[in-house]
């Protein structure tokens, strides 16, 4: 029996681990078409871009104006929250106002907890989104022991509550999204399946079975989470379950919930959404940023545009051959498990993945330049300090550095320029490695193409960290195949992912590199990351921040505070963007702490299930503060809440003062 079948989630792959049409060639997963007003969705149509309004749904004019800004930016479906019947009713006015202004874009009502609002909205707008975790259930955070009979009785109760909506949707031609959120699974699902990707999938399937029994198929499915590993695994598992259990192939709506703002939000969204798009999963996407919704649209468009000519532009990749016929790859794609590697210096084994900074285009590296990669020289008191984003290695190519590097930063040079200095490490070409006369005693880097691995088996790799790259346009798949081959060959050398972007701008780098590296890291592949772009002074900081951001978003190396902030919607009770910025300003040095910032009490606590601390709007100017899932300060005046949050972090001994670096 191999390692794969010994893993704790082995039951998920016992009957195969195929979840995408191909792991080798870019190909959209084939789906049925879904009609949403005049818009069609599914594999025969482009990947649709959507977003959600943030103004109060009762503000008709505000909702119309914001929807128009979104549509003008390229939004193809506009989602609007309908927390109660009165908002559901007002969708009629918003829809009418938009149609009068010549905008026919389909509207989607976002429903939580309120079947009567859903039933009304389904008669007005083109699509309703329901959350199976709270459509028929109130959350009590209880663990219940179900017998098969009592579980069945629960399913009957859900059927009674849900059936009227299905019938209305069928009658009115309204589409539906059954949208599971990791943070709001019902007590019933949690009790039976736990807080797992399988629980997320089953949560949707309970509702889907009812729809299929009624012969209602105009359905889109989603499996969102703010944890990218969980999110990717859940979508993959959904794809497999739909096939294995003979459901129709419904289109998928992709999204990472509460991704946050700015650079972090973009990187996290790209890791989650991009990883799935690479495998042809996903028919519509929403990038959730804590910013105005129209700013989400260009990010989503950029993510999707990459796949327009992917199949035509990439070189065919040969599938790996496996002994177990039912498997397409030698890993479990439904559970994160790091590839087994030998520890070499500070790479591989239990070491966190390392960040390597590319300075090979800079012939005159100055002390000042290292600020961009998190290392600061302080003349007074003549020492180096490092911030949380201090790179681990600097690759200088053929150039020397004429000052002493800080302790935390080691240098790599091309093997032909290596002088034998034990504090500097050589990078060899694969073809030169075996014959080389001069090698470092403990750490050598060997550059290798993803397509040339077969020769590795014959080499002595005892001190080697591989630096892996591919020129293939379908780069992630080519690199992933190389990792499969390393597993097959039994090679346990750590691997640095080398990703080069000669023709992209800063915004594109923050989307493309996370897509390419994120999928690999989520699958447990990669012990370091080296990003390259054509040289310019400011790009070093960008590449360094992106590399650390990718590792953080893939949850394989936590180096900064994580913010799980909701994108806001019509329920939001305070200015989320301003509050998030204020909280970030005072806490962004608290490495490893996760802070949830949620606009409302209805969904907030569930959505930030992963956070260490929570800041949740409960009423006008009133905030509740959470420690994990527990409310510790029930009703704090909004202008005092940030100070109270800091106080809470201090009480727990998790506070430290920010370090001065310049
Ligand atoms: S948590 Fe935020 S986005 Fe979600 S419903 Fe509440 S206010 Fe809206």
Main sheet strand line-up: 8-7-6-5-4-3-10-9
What is the radius of gyration?
A: 26 Å
Q: How would you classify the helix and strand content by structural class?
A: alpha/beta
DSSP strand content: 15-25%
Based on Cα principal axes, name the global outline: globular
Mean pLDDT: 92
Based on DSSP secondary structure assignment, what is the total number of beta strands? 25
| C-alpha termini separation | 56 Å
List unreliable stretches of 5+ residues: none
**How would a crystallographer describe the biggest sheet?**
8 strands, parallel
Q: Give the % helix.
A: 25-40%
Q: Which quaternary structure do these chains form? A: single chain
**Ligands (ions, cofactors included):** iron/sulfur cluster
**What is the count of DSSP helices, taking H or I runs of 4+ residues?**
18
Description:
The chain is an alpha/beta fold. It has 18 helices and 25 strands. The strands form five sheets. It has an eight-stranded parallel beta sheet with strand order 8-7-6-5-4-3-10-9. The chain has an eight-stranded parallel beta barrel with strand order 11-14-15-16-17-18-19-20. Helix 7 (197-213) packs parallel to helix 8. The model has no long low-confidence stretch (mean pLDDT 92).
Précis, in short:
This protein has 662 residues and is of the alpha/beta class. The chain has 18 helices and 25 strands.
Notable characteristics:
eight-stranded parallel barrel; globular; eight-stranded parallel beta sheet; 18 helices; alpha/beta; 662 residues; binds iron/sulfur cluster; single chain
């Amino acid at each position: 029996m191999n390692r794969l079948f010994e893993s704790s989630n082995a039951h998920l792959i016992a009957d195969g681990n195929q979840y995408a049409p191909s792991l080798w060639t870019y190909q959209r997963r084939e789906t049925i078409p879904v009609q949403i007003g005049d818009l069609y969705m599914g594999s025969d149509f482009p990947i649709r871009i959507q977003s959600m309004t943030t103004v109060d749904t009762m503000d008709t004019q505000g909702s119309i104006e914001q929807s128009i800004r979104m549509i003008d930016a390229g939004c193809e479906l506009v989602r609007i929250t309908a927390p109660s019947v009165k908002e559901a009713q007002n969708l009629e006015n918003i829809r009418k106002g938009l149609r009068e202004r010549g905008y026919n874009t389909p509207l989607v009502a976002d429903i939580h907890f309120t079947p009567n609002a859903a039933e009304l909205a389904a008669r007005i707008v083109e699509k309703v989104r329901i959350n199976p975790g709270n459509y028929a259930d109130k959350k009590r955070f209880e663990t219940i022991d179900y017998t098969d009979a009592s579980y069945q009785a629960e399913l009957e109760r859900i059927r009674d509550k849900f059936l009227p909506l299905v019938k209305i949707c069928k009658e009115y031609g309204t589409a539906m999204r059954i949208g599971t959120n990791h943070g709001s699974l019902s007590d019933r699902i949690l009790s039976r399946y736990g807080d797992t990707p399988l629980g997320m999938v089953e949560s949707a399937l309970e509702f889907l079975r009812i729809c299929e029994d009624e012969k209602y198929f105009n359905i889109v499915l989603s499996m969102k989470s703010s944890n990218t590993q969980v999110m990717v695994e859940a979508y993959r598992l959904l794809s497999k379950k739909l096939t294995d259990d003979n459901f129709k192939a419904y289109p998928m709506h992709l999204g990472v919930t509460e991704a946050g703002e700015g650079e972090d939000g973009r990187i996290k969204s790209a890791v989650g959404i991009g990883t799935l798009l690479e495998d042809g999963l996903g028919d519509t996407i929403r990038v959730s940023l804590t910013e105005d919704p129209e700013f989400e649209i260009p990010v989503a468009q950029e993510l999707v545009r990459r796949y327009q000519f992917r199949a035509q532009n990439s070189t065919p990749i040969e599938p790996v051959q496996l002994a177990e016929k039912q498997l397409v790859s030698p890993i479990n794609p439904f559970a994160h498990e790091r590839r087994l590697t030998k520890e070499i210096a500070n790479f591989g084994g239990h070491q966190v993945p390392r960040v390597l900074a590319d300075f090979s285009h800079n012939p005159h590296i100055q002390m000042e330049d290292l600020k961009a990669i998190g290392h600061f020289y302080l003349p007074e008191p003549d020492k180096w300090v490092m911030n949380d984003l201090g790179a681990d290695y600097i690759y200088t190519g053929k150039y020397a550095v004429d000052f002493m590097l800080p302790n935390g930063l080691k240098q790599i040079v091309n093997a032909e320029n290596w002088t034998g200095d034990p504090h500097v490490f050589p990078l060899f070409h694969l073809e030169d490695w075996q014959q080389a006369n001069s090698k470092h005693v403990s750490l050598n880097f060997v550059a290798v193409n993803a397509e040339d691995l077969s020769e590795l088996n014959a080499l002595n790799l005892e001190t080697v960290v591989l630096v892996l790259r591919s020129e293939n346009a379908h780069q992630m798949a080519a690199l992933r195949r190389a990792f499969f081959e390393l597993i097959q060959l039994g090679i346990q050398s750590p691997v640095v992912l080398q990703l080069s972007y000669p023709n992209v701008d800063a915004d594109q780098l923050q989307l493309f590199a996370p897509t390419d590296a994120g999928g690999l890291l989520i699958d447990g592949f990669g012990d370091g990351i080296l990003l390259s772009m054509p040289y310019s002074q400011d790009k070093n900081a960008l590449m360094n921040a992106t590399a650390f951001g990718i590792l953080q978003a893939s949850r394989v190396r936590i180096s900064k505070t994580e913010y799980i902030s909701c994108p806001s919607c019509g329920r939001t009770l305070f200015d989320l963007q301003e509050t998030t910025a204020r909280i970030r300003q005072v806490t962004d040095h608290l490495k490893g702490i996760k802070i949830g910032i949620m606009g409302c009490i209805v969904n907030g606590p569930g959505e930030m299930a992963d956070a260490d601390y929570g800041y949740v709007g409960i009423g006008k100017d009133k905030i509740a503060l959470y420690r994990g899932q527990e409310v510790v300060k029930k009703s704090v005046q909004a202008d005092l809440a940030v100070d109270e949050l800091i106080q809470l972090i201090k009480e727990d001994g998790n506070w430290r003062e920010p370090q001065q670096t310049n």
